[in-house]
Amino acid sequence: MADEQVTNPVEALPETGEPQPAARDAAELQRERDDYYDRWLRKTAEFDNYRKRVERERREQADQAIVDVLLDLLSVVDDFDRALTVDAGGSASGYRKGVELINAKLHDVLRRHGVRPFDSVGADFDPNLHQAVIHEVSADHREGEVIEELQKGYMIRERLLRPAMVKVAKA
What we know:
With 171 residues, the protein is an alpha+beta fold. It has two domains: 19-113, Hemagglutinin Ectodomain, Chain B (Alpha-Beta Complex); 117-171, Nucleotide Exchange Factor Grpe, Chain A, domain 2, CATH 2.30.22. 53% of the residues lie in helices and 19% in strands. It has three helices and six strands, in the order αααββββββ. The strands form two sheets. Strands 1-4-5 form a three-stranded antiparallel beta sheet. The relative contact order is 0.08. The mean pLDDT is 86.
């Protein structure tokens, strides 16, 4: 077997002027590789553009949500400005009624945007919802009970927006 000469089938082909099969296969493989590389570059660029577009749209949505809230609040600010320019004179009850209407309008704006206050008085102190600013000894209340709300707490949908500042009873 060592005496037999193995001939390369590519070398055995007669000269026809065409590239030999191995050279043709290499050129074809190189073209295919270049095609895949170009496709990969295009897909990478498309994905990068997609990612940038999604980020830009997300920012625009967030900005629009802020604008919507601010426009609602500006109407309340306008009402306060008008209330401050009116001379209350001797009719403090009329002035109070106007401020109460503005307050109701402001709470309506908050409610429309998913913001709601929560009650704390009488509840057990919860560090996830309350911020204890005062501890007071009280025989009338159980240990850890919220006995006074100094500042209301607010939720936005199911998430805490602002904790309530409270006074907590201690034994």
